[in-house]
Structure formats: C-alpha cells, structure tokens
Amino acid sequence: MSSCDSLLARATEAISRVPVDDENHTVAAAALSRSGEVFVGLNVYHFTGGPCAELVALGVAAANGVLAKDILVMGAVVRRAGNESGKVIIDVINPCGRCRQVLLDYNPEMEVIVRDDGGGGTVVTAESLLPHAYIWPDGNTGDRS
User: Can you tell which superkingdom this protein's organism belongs to (predicted)?
Assistant: First the structure.
C-alpha cells in the first residue's frame, strides 16, 4: 500500500466512526510528516461554518510538535449520502481555496492528494494548486521572491 493509499485509509477510518445522521458535508484529512507520523483531522459541521479537516490535521500535528513545513503529504476524503440506495459514499476530495492557500503558505512542496478524472487520487504539489497565487510575506514558505 502506498503512502497515499495509507493516508486516505486513515482518513476514511476516521470519517467512518462519525454517525451518519444527515447529509452534511463531513470531511476527514490525514497528513504524513517527515518522521512518518500520521495526523488525522475531521471537520465538525455547524451551520455557522468551521475549520476544514486539512486545517484541523495541521493543528493536530502542531499540537504534537510537528510544524506544517514538516508535513510531506496531505489527503482528504468526503462522506456523503449515496443515491436512492442510501449507501454512504466516501470519496477523495480536493482542498478548498482557503486550504490551498494555507498549504501553499506553509509548504509549497507539500504533496497533496487530489481527485483524478477517474475518481481516484493523484498527487500534485501545493504550489501547483494555486497558479498565480498571492504569496504571504510572513508565511513559512522560505525564499520565494
């Protein structure tokens, strides 16, 4: 099993523990650090908004002493209700715009698992997710002038 498959499996495991009681947008993310540790985050849906799973995973890593610049790979899955069958579907999901900016700011070389045309996952860099991006001058991106 590749590190990407393993990360998506960890995110799927986390999201599978959440009771299915509605069709809210529930996302789990897993982040792999340079040291091989995996940190999992889950968004907590509320109608007022809330943190994305990717940002929660970065926070969990930070709480364990791992900086975002030391995250090598990030992947996320979404859980949604299926069609008439009522079956729960878990799919790879691409990071939203805010998460793309955060991942770029903290580690432009971070690999991010995104959904490919066939519904599976493929790996791109955080930098490639935001062409012509705003570069945060105080970010942890190193010398990118």
Answer: Eukaryota
**CA gap 111, 30 in Å, rounded:** 12
Instruction: Report CA 67 to chain centroid distance, whole Å.
Output: 15
pTM for this entry? 0.87
Phi, psi angles (nearest 5°) of residue 98: -65, -45
Give the chain's domains with CATH numbers. Answer: 3-99 (3.40.140.10)
Cβ atoms 88, 97 nearer than 8 A? no
Say how far apart CA 95 and CA 107 lie, in whole Å. 15
Look at residue 29 in the predicted model and tell me its pLDDT: 95
- Examine the residue annotation and report whether 54 is marked as an active-site residue of this protein: yes
- Candidates 1, 4, 20, 3; CA nearest to 114 is 4
E strand or H helix at 66, and its extent?
Answer: none
Q: Which of 13, 37, 54, 84 is catalytic?
A: 54
